[in-house]
Amino acid sequence: MNMLLFLVVEAVLALSSFVAALPDQPQTNAPSIEWSNCSASDPPGVQCGRVSVPLSYTHHGLGTVELGMLRLSAPRSARLGTLFFNPGGPGTVASDYVLAAATEEGSPNFGHSVLQRYDIIGLDPRGVGLSQPVRCDPSIFNERVSSFPATEEEFQRLKAHNEALGKSCAKLTGPLIDHLDTVNVARDMELVRRAIHSEAKLNFLGLSYGSQIGLTYAEIFPENIHRMALDGILDHTQSETTTLNDEATTYELTLNQFFAWCNTTVKCTLHGQDAASVYESVIRAAEEQPISAPSCVSLGDNACRSDVTGEEVRSNVQILLLFQNATAGSASWVLLSAAIAQAAQGNATLLSSPLATSETFGAYPGIAIGCQDWLHESTNLADLRYKISMASTTAPQTRGTSQSFYYQTNCLGWPPPTTNPQRRLRPRVSEAPVILLVNALYDPATSIVWATEIQSQVANSVLLTRSGSGHTSYQLRGDAAGAIDAFLVDGILPQQATLASS
Questions:
Q1: Which residues pair with 216 in a beta bridge?
Q2: Cβ atoms < 10 Å from Cβ of 461
Q3: How far is CA 49 from CA 31, 238, 358, 363, 449, in A?
Q4: What pTM does this model have?
Q5: pLDDT per residue over 176-209, tens digit each?
Q6: For helices 364-373 and 403-410, what crossing angle results, to 10°?
Q7: For the residues of 336-397, what is the DSSP string, one character each?
């Protein structure tokens, strides 16, 4: 998640930026992991680890960054090896997911067979969670600035806000802010793999942004992979406009699936009404005047804005659309239907955007990592308005709202450079063992188009498509999740072009 086509100069920049990732770079010595208790009341089998890795893999002598991780051990008698896990984001805390699997009976974060056969490592990427989290000024982050500027004044305000936020992150985070891209994350994972067991190859399960980590690793270290399963495929190979269009349209297609579900499902709060019409009425009302969010407070972990604009409604609907069925820590479409119904009655609390209340707010890593991974080359208002016009044509209900567009607008003016821009996967990725790719047909964040494009670039890959809605499939514990478990535990792959019903 570039106007029209990649320019020749962009291709040159992309190639030069990736030279650092070439596999013939001198190998960094494997560090030692310091394992210890995470707390005084750790669940059985849980340990926390800390390890220092180079801040930069291309410029030695710049110091180190300390990574944190959580390990959940499998029973010794049945253990196959170690499985690295990333739940996405960027910025989602992997160690939290693994801890939840240890503390919540029946947690859907992992299948039973995986928990029985693998030590699971929740390695937080640099800048996230236990790994020196990105720090920023919450007051600047909370400034309300439109990502869809209509005037030159709004465009300049957006850029100034982004620059101020980026400078605050650089000041509070330090040198790490310039070294957060996914190439560094993949290299970190390789060092941790070698530190745990240099003879054992990598087993990896990556969801959403975790698929980008996995594919980047596969480009650099294809010979070091044992089994890799990726769910909710992110395509980091397309131009800005193609990336925007693909995500905007998959959001719109899934939103229409939600409307159809509401019109046929009594659990939907909007059942018996025209759900699409109610949604559009909320958007119109919020664009005329922000809708009040009376239950929001300005302090504490659950702080949120006191009212909601139309732009914010579209953005937060995409988030609530991610999971049709409730998963661990994620609400279902039932909550989304209630949020829209309440907003139509004048209470948009459930659609309000969270406010940052500390220097380590969880949204900071997402923007800091994303701005180093994704191109954002609109140099003027006309460039940006072209993208908005295009997306509003192909996705008139969502109008381009997406994580992709967020990076293309909220990274404008961001001080650290884009060090890992989009480009086609290197041919070496096909030297890896077979990679299992999984994607839902209607995923509001990662399009099935992205999954099929990645499949076409990775010769040794099998794509399993879930015939359903929602972002990723693993935590739903249906047929698609079962196929992932069978591959990770027994090496059994589904047939190419298999369609899973759940």
A1: none
A2: 24
A3: 12, 36, 25, 24, 38
A4: 0.93
A5: 999 999 999 999 999 999 999 988 999 999 999 9
A6: 80
A7: HHHHHHHHHTT--GGGPPB---STT-TTHHHHHHHHHHS-----SHHHHHHHHHHHHHH-TT
